[in-house]
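thread: overnight batch results

M.L. [08:02]
morning all. the overnight job finished for the chain we discussed friday. pasting input first so we're all looking at the same thing
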Amino acid sequence: MKDRGGPKKKEDKPRLLLHTCCGPCALGVIDRLKNDYEITCYFYNPNIHPEAEYGFRLDQAREMSKITKVSFIDDEYDVDIWFEKTKGLENEPEGGKRCEICFRKRLQRTGGKAKLIGADYFATTLTIGPQKNATLINAIGKRVSMEVGVAFLEGDWKKNEGFERSVELSRKYGLIRQDYCGCRYSR
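M.L. [08:03]
and the structure it wrote out:
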């Protein structure tokens, strides 16, 4: 039978595991990708501190999942491992070596989870942040992709008014944006 085009059925879409740093950021990325991918959001963020802030962001991410009707997975809050990996980098500036280690840790876990659940791709919402280095994050994602054997979907989601769209959607749905990345050293 000849393919007549038209919209794909949900089951025909490639599966994407989207690392989600928070609900407000995820709204903008999901808005861009929902027509082309079957998205599952993955909340793994051991950098968020204190634990009450982590809980708040996790709740906001769960609410985002309900709003967007995408699947949602959260993982353990292994903050002690995060502190161990970033030890000695407490005074690094935002965007420095500590951030690179943090991005790598979260993308490694996401790539591994993507392989485990049989996703076709993994990606991250991190590049929607105006202060986040999309070139660095995408390079780390590509390296992790080669390590785990799952394709990394590159993106600089802040471009083409992506960040502004995430702010607009956050307001529309009443999700609260944070004023720091979550790391206690960036606060």
